[in-house]
Amino acid sequence: MSKICLMVGSVYGGADHVAEQLQPLMQQAGFAVERVEQLTDSGLRQLDGSNLLVITSTTGSGDLPDNIAPLYYQLQQQFPLLPQSRYGVIALGDSSYGDTYCGAGHQFDQLLQELGAQRIGSVLQIDACETMEPEQPAQQWLAPWLAELASAQ
Ligand SMILES: Cc1cc2nc3c(=O)[nH]c(=O)nc-3n(C[C@H](O)[C@H](O)[C@H](O)COP(=O)(O)O)c2cc1C
């Protein structure tokens, strides 16, 4: 069974809630889901070829939440090339923050691009100014993302 590595960054629980809502949909689509918070050396070596889904909010001024920052810096420092990996990014933010809108999601997108991974779909930005139910746009985005991922396996 193909696997999706789920990487979640959240301060107040919104992105966590989105991840919890999406996880059964991924499983129903036939993917095993593994939540990843920190990678071992062998986990890093085996990462290429895996499917990655980043779901993160933004804190501070375009910053990564504390519970996903260690993973980001591990990837940035170890720099495992991931040309066989596919990924998606769901970025929660608030457009009233202007230039730093969804900054953490975009930082992850940029890093995964630098590692050579192939993004499926566009980065989904979910604006807290527009919705109190971020799981709804996330669910809509997920269905075609999963279909494309399945056809790429
Ligand atoms: C102190 C603070 C700083 C924030 N900074 C940003 C920011 O720079 N850019 C942005 O798009 N959203 C920012 N946000 C908005 C959050 O990313 C948004 O509310 C998100 O839905 C929170 O998700 P979470 O509950 O998973 O942490 C900030 C929110 C707070 C409370």
Q: Secondary-structure blueprint of this entry?
A:
Elements: E1 3-9, H1 14-28, E2 32-35, H2 41-45, E3 51-57, H3 69-78, E4 86-93, H4 103-114, E5 118-119, E6 124-127, H5 135-152
Parallel strand pairs: 1-2, 1-3, 3-4, 4-5, 4-6
Helix pairs in contact: 1-5
The structure holds flavin mononucleotide.
Flavin mononucleotide is lined by residues 10-15, 57-62, 92-94, 97, 100-103, 128.
Give a quick rundown of the structure:
This protein has 153 residues and is an alpha/beta fold. It has helices spanning 14-28, 41-45, 69-78, 103-114, 135-152; strands at residues 3-9, 32-35, 51-57, 86-93, 118-119, 124-127.
List its traits:
alpha/beta; 39% helix; binds flavin mononucleotide; Rossmann fold; 153 residues; 5 helices; 6 strands; six-stranded parallel sheet; globular
CATH architecture: 3-Layer(aba) Sandwich
The proportion of residues forming helix, as a percent range, comes to 25-40%
Order of helices and strands: EHEHEHEHEEH
| Count of DSSP-assigned helices | 5
- What is the CATH C level class, in words? Alpha Beta
* CATH-derived topology: Rossmann fold
Q: Would you count the extended β strands for me?
A: 6
- Report mean pLDDT, rounded to a whole number: 96
CATH superfamily (homologous) name:
Flavodoxin domain
Q: What ions, cofactors and ligands are bound? A: flavin mononucleotide
Quaternary state of this entry equals single chain
Radius of gyration: 14 Å
Low-pLDDT runs: none
Strand coverage percent: 15-25%
**Count of separate structural domains:** 1
Query: Could you describe the largest sheet, including whether it forms a barrel?
Result: 6 strands, parallel
- What shape does the CA trace take? globular
* Spatial separation of the terminal alpha carbons: 10 Å
